[in-house]
Specification:
The complex is a heterodimer of chains A (about 230) and B (about 200). Chain A has about 230 residues and is α/β, with parallel strands linked by helices. Chain A has a single domain (about 35-215), classed as Oxidized Rhodanese, domain 1 (3-Layer(aba) Sandwich). Chain A has helices at about 1-5, 10-25, 40-50, 55-65, 80-85, 115-125, 140-150, 160-175, 180-185; strands spanning about 55, 70-75, 90, 105-110, 130-135, 150, 180. In chain A, the strands form two sheets. Chain A has a five-stranded parallel beta sheet with strand order 1-5-4-2-3. In chain A, strands 6-7 form a two-stranded parallel sheet. The longest helix of chain A has 16 residues, at about 10-25. The radius of gyration of chain A is 25 Å and the shape is elongated. The relative contact order of chain A is 0.13. Helices cover about 70% and strands about 0% of the residues of chain B. The radius of gyration of chain B is 19 Å and the shape is globular. Classes of the chains: A alpha/beta (about 230), B mainly alpha (about 200). The interface between A and B is large, with 34 and 45 residues.
């Protein structure tokens, strides 16, 4: 045996080592699976620093720019999703969260009606080692309030006016229209936004569906070559 | 310590550029050491009398694959955080064919052309100029080809995930493929070296 080994060339020995390592790798399970280590301190800090969420206007800007480096996840039921969803969102009902094939390396933005379901889903995904998970702050309600039907002041100062112009164009992009502050207060806080699903200009998915790329935002994708 | 270091925030964008630079220098150095700074060496693989390119590249693949597998297994590397290029199947097949034609015609592939330029080869420099001209042309044409360029799911596909094969089986199969390929390459080299009279 020893003699046979010594007659092999270095390349042959290396090839033999590779085959052995490969054979052992048959039993390898390099993906961690459901084993989880949670760093509670780190999570708490992320929450405290508000690094766990995206604000509605910010998300609106991403959609308008048709950024493709994140995935927008609608956590509500299929029926609710069919009725209305934020453009580019994909539907992953809460129950399917863990087997929806979301990538741990993807940037995910979660939303639900309010904030509770998305916060719970955020925790679950964090606990499974998903790194880039964010919630839409305030959920669909804040989305309606701040993006689709934003409230504009009645007598805007010139400073406010330019901001209003932007709000107006964003709101039109998503098929809504701004509300005046007086109408909102006269209505006793009644939400015209609640009429959203029946609004005539209700946007079906208008923006092109994002090619759900898996990259983090930031540096451009690295290309590989030989 | 747990890899990937960048994803775990152990260094930022600037440091990652330095790391990329060092790895790039190493990559170029070993391309040159393997003789891949010469178009003659590279192209002789298409005449089947010197399959060094095939052997070096496949060795690199097997080495990296085994390393990544074992690091993941013992828990030093979180494989699920390693960035995978999204799969656009048809565009990538077409892109691969274009790159292959460029390789046969120009005698280099992008990385080796840069290594050749660094050692002062004029054909390498011409190739690099061609790369940039092609990139410029592509960027100008982008609106025309965008539809095809982004066609397909755009989600990273893997062999274990798509065909539902255990990860380890794929690793072993690739190793066997490599070793079998090296053996076959040796036979081919013997056969065609005599035919080419070298």
């Amino acid at each position: 045996m020893r003699n046979r080994m010594s007659t092999l060339t270095l390349n042959q020995k290396l090839a033999l080592a590779a085959v052995l390592l490969g054979a052992i790798a048959l039993f390898a399970a390099p993906y961690p699976g459901s084993r989880v280590t949670l760093d509670a301190k780190e999570l708490a800090l992320a929450v405290a620093k508000e690094a766990d969420h995206v604000e509605a206007p910010e998300l609106a800007a991403w959609i308008i720019e048709s950024r493709a480096d994140y995935r927008l996840i609608d956590l509500r039921s299929e029926a609710e999703y069919a009725q209305y969803h934020i453009p580019t969102a994909v539907n992953v009902p809460m129950g399917n969260l863990t087997d929806a094939g979301l990538g741990r390396q993807e940037t995910l933005v979660l939303y639900s009606d309010g904030g509770i379901h998305s916060a719970q889903a955020w925790m679950l995904l964090k606990a499974q080692g998903y790194k880039g998970v964010y919630m839409l702050k305030g959920g669909l309600e804040e989305w309606k309030d701040r993006v689709v039907f934003p409230v504009l002041a009645d007598n805007p100062t010139s400073e406010q006016r330019s901001g209003d112009e932007r709000l107006r164009s964003v709101s039109t992009f998503f098929g809504g229209q701004p509300r005046s502050a007086s109408a909102v207060s006269a209505g006793g806080g009644g939400m015209p936004g609640m009429a959203m699903p029946t609004a005539p200009a209700l946007p079906k998915v208008t923006a092109p569906p994002s090619p759900a790329g898996g990259a983090k935002p930031g540096p451009a994708k690295k290309k590989e070559g030989c | 310590m747990m890899a990937p270091f960048f994803k775990y925030g152990m260094f930022g964008d600037e440091t990652s550029l330095v790391v990329a630079f060092l790895i790039g220098i190493g990559f170029g150095f070993f391309l040159e050491r393997a003789g891949f700074g010469s178009a003659r060496k590279l192209v002789s693989q298409f005449y089947l009398n010197d399959l060094a390119v095939f052997k070096v590249m496949f060795t690199a693949i097997v080495t990296a694959m085994l390393g990544v597998t074992y690091l993941g297994w013992i828990g030093w590397l979180d494989l699920s955080l390693v960035y995978l290029v999204p799969t656009y199947l048809m565009p990538q097949i077409v892109g691969g064919l274009i790159l292959g034609v460029g390789f046969v015609v120009g005698g280099y592939c992008p990385g080796t052309s840069v290594a050749a330029t660094a050692t002062g080869r004029i054909d390498g420099l011409v190739y690099v100029v061609g790369i940039f001209a092609g990139m410029f042309a592509f960027a100008e044409m982008y609106p025309l080809v965008k539809g095809f360029y982004l066609s397909g799911a755009g989600v990273a596909m893997t062999i274990p995930g798509t065909f539902d094969v255990p990860y380890g089986v794929v690793v072993f199969a690739v190793v066997l493929m490599a070793v079998g390929g090296f053996y076959g390459a040796g036979l081919l080299e013997k056969k065609f070296a005599t035919a080419a009279g070298e």
